[in-house]
Specification:
12 helices, EC 1.5.1.2, 12% strand, binds NADPH dihydro-nicotinamide-adenine-dinucleotide phosphate, alpha/beta, globular, ProC C-terminal domain-like fold, Rossmann fold, binds (2S)-3,4-dihydro-2H-pyrrole-2-carboxylic acid, amino-acid biosynthesis
Length: 282
């Protein structure tokens, strides 16, 4: 077990649960080191307590007072209220990690009235099983040791890439939202499998293993994805016939637009919830 500090999740929704589950499963934190608070959904807190045996708090400010590391995990639209509610409990020794899409570290520092270190991270829900692809950027008050601490935390629930803060919009469009694109593809493959008379269980197993195999191949081989694709595609064969349909429906263009639009939306969220007077808007 890593000697870790107490971690408070402010916002106890889907992303918080993915991280909590990953941190506990990977033994970076024990349940008693984790405390979660949300706005008002007590049922949700009790559910997390029952499932993971973590501590819960009806007051976000109390959770902050108990912890050394804070994970901000509310929706961007709720950030202002949430950060106001914990502001008085923040001190300089806190390490603040935000997973909020679009919201800059400068804006968080401004809302919290603090020069405590803030790290902005963009994980994804695969954190729950130790497979998040997380992008990380340091705010202006964060030092090397804070980045290292955040990296250690996120490495425990997947891989971590440190980037400039402006790149986090792209990471959000690509990897933060990424699992949803893959599930969308799976939904379509399952529909096709059903109309080809495969059972849902048979299809799910075949699809999951196919995705796993392709993902491992991408990680283990240096070959360009185009080359890997060509190796599957026999001239005049089944794959070529299938890919012709993807080209016909412009699926490549659709996916490119999807990732770019999601990244753009991250920028929009940042602008929507950051008053023009805030300094250093990213
Ligand atoms: N889901 C994902 O795949 C990813 C999400 N993110 C980011 O994570 C954040 C959370 O997303 P997600 O988990 O999906 O959202 P959810 O809606 O599932 O959870 C949001 C949580 O925030 C709580 N909350 C709202 N207002 C406050 C407040 N004032 N004080 C304390 N807690 C509050 C809510 O509590 P209550 O129910 O009581 O209102 C709820 O528990 C977002 O900013 C998102 O951009 C980042 C990467 C991936
Ligand atoms: O959809 C969203 O806004 C969040 C951020 C990345 C994944 N989910």
């Amino acid at each position: 077990m890593a000697v870790y500090k107490k971690i408070a999740f402010i916002g106890a929704g889907a992303m918080a649960e993915a991280m909590i589950s990953g941190l506990i499963a990977n033994k970076l934190a024990s349940p008693e080191q984790i405390i979660a608070a949300n706005r008002m959904n007590t049922k949700r807190l009790l559910e997390l307590q029952r499932k993971y045996e973590i501590k819960i708090s009806a007051s976000a400010a109390d959770a902050v007072s108990e912890a050394e590391i804070l994970i901000l995990a509310m929706k961007p639209k709720d950030a202002e209220d949430a950060l106001h509610s914990i502001r008085d409990a923040i001190h300089k020794q806190h390490l603040i990690i935000s997973v909020l899409a679009g919201i800059s570290t400068d804006h968080i520092s401004t809302l919290l009235h603090t020069d405590a270190p803030v790290i902005r991270a963009m994980p994804n829900t695969s954190a729950a099983i130790g497979y998040s692809a997380t992008g990380l950027a340091a705010g202006k008050y964060a030092e090397e040791q804070h980045v290292k601490q955040a990296e250690e935390l996120f490495n425990c629930i997947g891989t971590t890439t440190c980037l400039k803060e402006e790149s986090l919009h792209a990471v959000t469009g690509l990897a933060g939202s990424g699992p949803a694109y893959v599930y969308y593809l799976v939904e379509a493959m399952q529909q096709a499998a059903s109309s080809l008379n495969l059972s849902e269980t048979e299809a799910r197993d075949l699809i999951a293993q196919t995705l796993l195999g392709a993902a491992h191949m991408l990680k283990m081989s240096d070959e360009h994805p185009l080359l890997l694709r060509q190796k599957v595609t026999s001239p005049g064969g089944t794959t070529e016939a299938g890919i012709q349909m993807l080209d016909h429906f412009k699926v490549k263009e659709a996916i490119e637009s999807c990732v770019k639009r999601a990244a753009q939306r991250s920028e929009e969220l940042g602008r929507m919830y950051t008053p023009p007077s805030s300094e250093g808007i990213v």
